[in-house]
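Exercise 7. Predict the joint structure of the components listed below.
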Amino acid sequence: MPDAPVLLKPVLGIETSCDETAAAVLDGAGHVLAEAVFTQAEEHARFGGVVPEIAARAHLQRLPALVARVLDEAGLGLGELGGVAATAGPGLIGGLIVGASLAKGLALGAGLPFLAVNHLEAHALTARLPGLFPAPPPFPYLLLLLSGGHCQCVAVEGLGRYRRLGTTLDDAVGEAFDKAAKLMGLPWPGGPHLERLAAGGDARAVALPRPLLGRPGCDFSFSGLKTAVAQAVAKGLPHADIAAAFQASVAAVLADRARHAHALLPEATALVVAGGVAANRALRAALAEATPLPLLAPPQRLCTDNAVMVAFAGLLRLAAGERHGMEVAPRPRWPLEELAPPG
Ligand code: KG4
Ligand code: ZN
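Solution:
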C-alpha cells in the first residue's frame, strides 16, 4: 500500500456507532478539510451509561445538520465528492442505521460510491493519517484499542489485514473505569473523574489485584478488579487512594499485556493507542515504558470516536477501487478478522 492514498476527490465520512454523532470531509490525499463531533454524553449521563434508543434519536436529530456544516466548511457540494463513507459496524444498531442510511441516500442521490466502514478498522488506521506523526508507522504495528466498548490488542499488518492478539474476557477497560468511578460516586463517564481523583491519592495504600498479570498472551480481565474496588469502598478506605490503586493496577496490566503483544509480534514498528481511555496520562506513561517501541498516541479528538477516521478508512478503500451496494446492511457485531484487503 502506498503511504498516501490516491483518490482524486474528497470523501465525506459519517460516524454514529455509539454516542458521538460525527461528520468529516477529507481531501483525496487524506488531509482534513472539515470535521465536527457532537458528543451526546449529557443526554446519557443521568442514566449512567449510553441508552441506545436515546442515542439513535439524537443521531437522527443532529446528523443532517452536521453533514451540511462540514460540507459547507470544506466549501464543497456533494457533486464534488469522490464518495461517501459511513460506519456500518460494530456498534449500536439504531445509530448505525441512521448513519449508514443517510450516507447511502446521499451517495445514491448524487451518484457517488458508498462505502461501509468497519469502526475498528477506522480506529486501527488513524495513526496513518497524513501529517499526524512525522511519518506514518509502517506495517505491521500494534494497536491497543482502549475504549468504553472495546478492549483489544491487534496486529495491524496492512489495509484489511488484522490479527486480534487479545481481547477482554469480561469488561472493556473504559467500562471498568466507569464502574469503579460509579462505585466512588463520580459522574458518568467516570474515566476522567477517576484520573483526577487518583492524582491526589496513594496507590500503595490500597492493595488491589492485577488480573492476568504475567499470563501468556494478551487477553484482559477487569471484572475482578471492579469487585475489589467495591470491597475497598465498602471498607471505607479513602476514595483517592482507591482511585490511585485502581489506575496503577490497570497501568501495570496494560504494560504487561503490551510486552506480551510485542513478544507475539517482534517485527512491530510501533505501539499505537486509540479509544477514550488512551487520554489517561498515567496509562500512557506506563505504556511508553513497557516496550522499546515508540508509543504513538493520536490527539484526543482522534482517539475518541470521530468521523475523520471513518472518512480516512473509506478513502483508503475507495482509492483501491472498493465500492459497496445499497444492500450492505449495518452490523452490530463485525469482528476485525472478518475484513479483507480491498478487492
Ligand atoms: O472511545 P470513547 O470516547 O467511546 C467509546 O467507548 O466508544 O471512550 C470512552 C471511555 C469511557 O469509558 C471513559 O470513561 C473513558 O473512555 N475515558 C477515560 C479517560 N477519558 C475517557 N478513562 C480513563 N482516563 C481518562 N482520562
Ligand atoms: Zn470507537
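Discussion. The mean pLDDT is 96.
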